[in-house]
Amino acid sequence: DGVVKFEDVRFAYDPSRPILKGLSFEVPAGKTVAIVGPSGAGKSTISRLLFRLYDVSGGHIRIDGQDIRDVTQTSLRAAIGMVPQDTVLFNDTIRYNIRYGRWNASDAEVEEAAQTAQIDAFIKASPKGYETEVGERGLKLSGGEKQRVAIARTVLKSPPILVLDEATSALDSHTEHEIQGALERVSQNRTSLVIAHRLSTIVGADEIIVLDQGRISERGTHAQLLEHG
Ligand code: ADP
Ligand code: ADP
User: Fold this and answer.
1) How far does residue 227's CA lie from ligand 1's centre (Å)?
2) pLDDT tens digits along 68-107
3) Nearest CA to ligand 2 atom 5
4) 189 FRET partner, CA 20 to 30 A, in 120, 158, 164, 183?
5) pTM metric for this prediction
């Protein structure tokens, strides 16, 4: 059912410079936890560790109680849907890019995923719709549109755990609003870890963890954190 648990996780890219200094938190099944904090705090590192792009140097990361070091890469990749902050799309159609999440999906399912990720308005507005090519040969999508295509791909894959690393690039407020809506719809009832670079996205999270220099400096709901100032 996808419970994610970090137990006293320590990590350093370079042994002389620790990045995470004993981090413990849990994402209960079906809940959304947002990680916030200044640039360089170690937020994206958390998602890289969960996906095992790197291994922890101390502590444990568990999914449903099992240390991820004891899980095969294949089942880890199947359990976690990751939307990275810099989405790279294939130089092919939008439909192809969304369908990459699950090749045997029907057209209706592809369209439903696009709708959930709120990319469908864009698709309908463009002359060739889903057959619009992304990348150099065709129409260039903005960073926000690309991220929504990646979100649609992940929705179609429908993994038990969702990791969303929000784009850091400057987005206009309309795009930001659309992405926020997409994230909210996608994370509903799904175990979700949101690496938040914008305050607007964390309002709906069940718990917000404030990371500062590799440690948790504050945690709580949006309302609780506002109370504490
Ligand atoms: P955030 O997402 O909070 O901005 P990151 O997790 O990306 O922070 O990075 C945390 C720290 O780790 C930063 O000081 C960054 O410079 C460093 N860092 C990130 N990636 C690497 C890497 N591959 N090798 C060495 N240092 C890295
Ligand atoms: P972001 O700040 O958008 O999360 P990254 O996580 O990719 O971006 O990188 C965070 C910081 O880590 C940046 O300042 C980047 O220069 C630095 N960084 C990334 N990869 C490496 C690396 N291999 N070695 C050293 N520093 C790195």
Assistant:
1) 30
2) 999 999 999 999 998 887 778 888 888 899 999 899 999 8
3) 44
4) 120
5) 0.81
